[in-house]
Specification:
599 residues; 4 strands; mainly alpha; four-stranded mixed beta sheet; Alpha-D-Glucose-1,6-Bisphosphate, Chain A, domain 3; single chain
Length: 599
């Protein structure tokens, strides 16, 4: 229950206590700040532990009460008197010990929080509150779903489990109380806002995934229950356990997603974490789910077309019950969040660019990997046909190629368009952003990863190929040498052009970024520029920082009076300087550029 979740985090909290205490001592000569931080962590750590003990004890007692009152007629050995006494003793002990301890520690924490805004917004307190909210929510949602599923099943007393109902009550009360406390205090500091966002987006993602999977499961149950599958009969009615599980998942997954996304995350467009959530979970996740389902669907259809299955149509085509809804749900999740992310990105373009770039190259990698897998399989099929044609000792089974060709074509049909689309997107981004895109970390990781994998594949393939050739020279060539070299030939044929192309792109990026990057010089400006206005304008033009020596004499002209044409002249003379070091001296209404070298 929630006790287990909270107790599992204790080692992390201890580490945080040590780190923050050390940092606190380092930032305060007397060590008073470090001691305060340590007390904070110590207090909230004990509060969490005592809350977990108290919650577990109350849950044990409630579970026992519900089992006795609701399931009394169906007690088995697990509900014997000895077990009830043990459960009762454990529940009372943990409640009697944990309850007063939590009350004392929490009361002390509340007194500290009421002493001022700095205490109520302390990072340790906010971390503790959001951890409790996250643990309680992730405990309450599955438990209430199981309880509602039991109600939908017709309230069978024999299947009742008091643990679910007790967890619903305890976790629900804990979440509601701490949510009121957290929202009442607000989130005044950037650290507090970040912790709140982590809680919000974790629960939003959890609810969205649960909702999506449950929708797919419900549609699959409905489709496979239809009387359209020929001789295939459905053993049970549509109203079965998977259907009830899907309905409860839609209800509570949708509740978790709707509450946290539309209420708590509403208006959070300035958050970088929101953009990371957009592109790494719903956008990428939706696209990957739709891609996998489309690949499986094509594979199964091609297997049927090639006659590689012995099952009846009614049995074989039931895969449509989950592949089609997965494609539709994945595309809907992808489309909604991608559109919303693009709309919000326009409001803060520079801060959102990194998350979009990661998404583009992630989809590039997925599409390229899918296409490469299909090409490798296709070459393997062709080589196998050659081996079977020249061999007199190998007798392949009839139609061995059908399943392999079906999977190969499915991978190619989905992977090539995906890679082609996103690689063209990446090329357009390069044309638009130039230097910032050439030097982007995500682009370099993508290119170096592809090049590295291609080099490893070619190296391994060449080693095995040379080994097989030497073995053939020594032992005599035969079909076995070709068979053992098959995977090497597959790797070489695919990896060689892949390596050549991406190596050319990588070299071009390095060349262009090196040529586009201005040659830095050590520039020193001596001027009356108290607000660094002139220095900032010159830095923006050069693309790097310069050193400013503020002139002590009264300024005859302000930095703002320097026209743009003068800034351009200065930048041009700095770039054309024959030396690495340049001094700019503002005097008597003019600025002189003086190249120099140190003796």
């Amino acid at each position: 229950m929630i006790f287990s979740v909270l107790f599992a985090i204790v080692p992390i909290l201890i580490i945080i206590a040590i780190v923050m205490a050390v940092r606190g001592r380092g930032s305060s000569g007397s060590g008073e700040e470090g001691a305060s931080v340590t007390r904070h962590v110590w207090l909230y750590l004990l509060t969490l532990i005592s809350l977990g003990i108290f919650a577990f004890g109350v849950g044990q007692l409630l579970s026992l009460l519900f089992d006795i009152t609701i399931k009394s007629g169906y007690m088995t050995e697990i509900g014997s008197r000895a077990f009830n006494q043990e459960q009762l003793s454990m529940g009372l002990a943990m409640t009697i010990i944990g309850g007063p301890l939590w009350f004392l520690f929490w009361r002390a924490a509340q007194r500290r929080a009421k002493s001022g805004p700095a205490e109520s917004s302390a990072i340790v307190r906010k971390f503790s509150l959001n951890l409790i909210l996250l643990s309680a929510a992730l405990t309450w949602l599955p438990a209430v779903a199981e309880f509602i599923k039991w109600l939908l099943a017709g309230v069978p007393a024999a299947n009742f489990d008091g643990t679910f109902l007790s967890t619903v009550i305890v976790a629900g009360v804990i979440w509601f109380y701490h949510f009121r406390v957290s929202e009442g205090e607000g989130h005044l500091t950037p650290g507090a806002q970040t912790l709140r966002r982590w809680y919000v987006y974790i629960l939003s993602g959890y609810g969205l995934v649960w909702l999506s999977v449950s929708v797919i499961q419900l549609i699959n149950s409905a489709v496979t229950s239809l009387p359209i599958w020929g001789e295939v009969l459905v053993d049970s009615s549509f109203w079965n356990d998977p259907t009830r599980t899907a309905i409860t998942g839609i209800l509570f997954g949708g509740l978790a997603w709707f509450f946290h996304w539309f209420r708590m995350a509403k208006g959070d467009v300035e958050s970088t974490l929101r953009q990371v959530y957009f592109y790494l979970l719903p956008v990428s996740g939706g696209a990957i789910a739709a891609l996998v389902a489309a690949t499986v669907m094509l594979y199964q259809i091609l297997i049927w077309v090639f006659g590689a299955t012995g099952a009846s149509a009614g049995s074989h085509f039931q895969f449509l019950g989950w592949t089609l809804p997965t494609i539709l749900v994945g595309f809907a999740v992808w489309g909604y969040h991608r559109t919303l992310a693009q709309e919000e990105a326009g409001k803060a373009e520079e801060r959102r660019e990194s998350a979009r770039r990661v998404y583009v190259y992630l989809m590039n990698f997925i599409g390229l990997g899918t296409a490469v897998a299909g090409l490798v399989m296709l070459i393997g099929i062709l080589l196998e046909l050659v081996i079977n044609a020249v061999s007199t000792s190998i007798t392949p089974s009839a139609g061995w190629w059908r399943e392999q060709l079906a999977l190969c074509l499915a991978l190619l049909i989905t992977g090539i368009p995906l890679w082609f689309y996103y690689w063209n997107t990446a090329l357009k981004r390069v044309q638009k952003a130039e230097l910032s895109e050439w030097s982007a970390l995500s682009r370099r990781i993508y290119l170096y990863t592809v090049v590295g994998i291609a080099i490893i594949a070619m190296t391994a393939g060449l080693v095995n190929l040379v080994y097989q050739l030497i073995s053939g020279i020594l032992d005599g060539f035969g079909v076995q040498v070709l068979t053992n070299s098959k995977w090497s030939l597959q790797a070489l044929v695919v990896a060689a052009p892949l390596l050549w192309y991406h190596w050319q792109v990588l070299r071009e990026d390095q060349k262009e970024s090196a040529e586009a990057k201005p040659h830095r010089r050590s520039v020193t400006l001596l001027a009356a520029d108290p607000d660094r206005e002139m220095a900032s304008r010159l830095e923006a033009r050069l693309g790097y920082k310069i050193k400013l020596l503020k002139q002590a004499a009264p300024a005859t002209e302000t930095a703002a009076a320097v026209p743009d044409e003068e800034i351009e002249r200065l930048a041009g003379e700095i770039l054309a300087s024959p030396t690495e070091k340049v001094m700019l001296v503002a005097s008597e209404g003019r600025i002189d550029v003086l190249p120099y070298e140190e003796d």
